[in-house]
Amino acid sequence: MTEDFTTEIYYDGDVDESHLANSTVAVLGYGSQGHAHALNLHESGVDVIVGLREDSSSRKPAREEGLEVATAAEAAKQADVVSILVPDTVQPAVYEEIEPHLEEGDTLQFAHGFNIHYNQIQPPEHVDVTMIAPKSPGHLVRRNYERDEGTPGLLAVYQDTTGDAKDRALAYAKGIGCTRAGVVETTFKEETETDLFGEQAVLCGGIAQLIKVGYETLVDAGYSEEMAYFECMNEMKLIVDLMYEGGLGAMWDSVSDTAEYGGLTRGDEIIDDHARENMEEVLRQVQEGEFATEWVAENQANRPVYTQLNQAEKNHEIEDVGERLRALFAWEEANEESEDEDEKTRVQAD
Ligand code: NAD
Ligand code: MG
Asked: Which residue, by CA, sits nearest to atom 4 of ligand 1?
C-alpha cells in the first residue's frame, strides 16, 4: 500500500492469493477483457471455466487455449466467483440466466460498474459484489501478463456479505496481473460516473468534436483538407504521447515557445466557461442517471439514435481525407498492425 495518494493502492505484496485457492472462477464472455482474464487467471493457477453461448465462435479459441467451456448458466453453477465480461448492454440478460445459480457466499465480479450502479442488475443479498477494472483494453492486459508486466486497475466492493469480498477481489486482481502495476481502490459509483463523464466530455466526445470543429474551421476558411487533417487530427497523437509520457509539462517543453504562448493564451478562449458549464451539465446527467436511462431505452428501441450518429460520423469528410492520407503513410500503419495483431484476431474471433 502507498500512503502518498488520496486512495489506497495495492501491489502483489499486499495480496494473499489463498483467498481464491479453493475457488472456481467463471469468466462469462471471451472478448477483449474475457479472454485476458480467463487466460491470465488460468496461468496463475486459478481454476477457470469460461461461460459462452452454445453457438459462440469463441468456444473454439477458448478450448484451443486449454480452457474449459460451458454455457453461462452451467459455468455459474460450478463457480464461486462469476466474472461478468460480456458487453455492458448484454449483461442484464446474461444475469437472468445465472441468477438461479448464485449460491450463498458466491461473488459477482465486474470490470465496470454501470449495471450495478444504475440498478440494471440487482444481485441478491447473499452474494459479494466486487469490481476489478483493468485500466486498459484486454489485449494489453494479456500482453503485459505474458511479459511479466502488469496493468493498473481499479478495485471496488459494492456488497460484502462474506467479509472476504475485498481480499477475494485482490486475489483476482493478482491473478490477472493488475497488482503487479498497482490497484487503486474506488467505489462502483465513482468508477461508473467518472468513466462515463471522461468518455463523454473529454476522451471520446470532447476530443472528436474538438478535432472536427478545428478541421471544419480551417477548411471553411479556404485551407486545404490535407493541411486541416494534419493539423487537427494527425498531430493529435504526437501531442497525446508527450502528455502520456510526461504530463502537460512534457508537451509544453517539447513544442516551440510560440506554440506554448499561443496555446496558453488561446486555449481557454476555446474551452471557455461556457464549455465548462456544458461539462457540468453532462456530469449532472451522469450523476442523476439521466444518461443511463436514455442509453437503456435506446438499446431497448434497437438503437435508432446510435445508428444514425454512428453513420453520420463515418460520413464526415475528415474520415475520407484521413483514409487517403494514411494510405500514403502506410509504414505507420504497418507498425501499428503488428502491435495490434492479437487484439484483431480476438475481435474477429467473435
Ligand atoms: P467485448 O465487446 O469485447 O465482448 C465480450 C464478449 O461477450 C464477446 O466476445 C462474446 O464472447 C460475449 N458476447 C457478446 N455478445 C453476447 C451476447 N449477446 N450474449 C452472450 N455473450 C455475448 O466486451 P469487453 O470490451 O471485454 O467488455 C466486458 C466488460 O469489461 C464490460 O463491462 C466493459 O465495460 C469492461 N471493460 C472493458 C474494457 C475494454 O477496454 N474493452 C476496459 C475495462 C473494462
Ligand atoms: Mg473507460
From this structure: 31
Ligand 1 site, residue 140, Cβ cutoff 6 A:
no
Cα–Cα dist 330/314, whole Å: 21
Q: Is pLDDT of 179 > 80? A: yes
C-beta 32 within 6 A of ligand 1 = yes
288-298 per-residue burial string, b: 16 or more CB within 10 A, e: under 16: eeebbeebbee
Select from 227, 218, 216, 178 the least CA-distant residue to 11.
178
- Ligand 2 (ion): which residues have CB within 5 A? 195
Residue 195 CA, ligand 2 centroid: distance in Å: 5
Cβ of residue 188 lying under 6 Å from some atom of ligand 1 = no
* pLDDT per residue as tens digits for the range 62-112: 999 999 999 999 999 999 999 999 999 999 999 999 999 999 999 999 999
- Spell out a b/e string for 331-349, using b for 16 or more CB atoms within 10 Å of the CB, else e: eeeeeeeeeeebbeebeee
* pTM score: 0.91
- CA–centroid distance, residue 111 to ligand 1 (Å): 9
d(CA 13, CA 311): 48
Angle 68-72-75 from CA coordinates, rounded to 5°: 45
- Name the residue with higher pLDDT: 337 or 264: 264
Catalytic residue annotation: 112
Check pocket membership of 134 for ligand 1, CB cut-off 6 A.
yes
Q: How far is CA 121 from CA 278, 289, 316, in A?
A: 30, 15, 37
Nearest residue by C-alpha to atom 12 in ligand 1: 29
Neighbours of 245 (CB within 10 A): 10
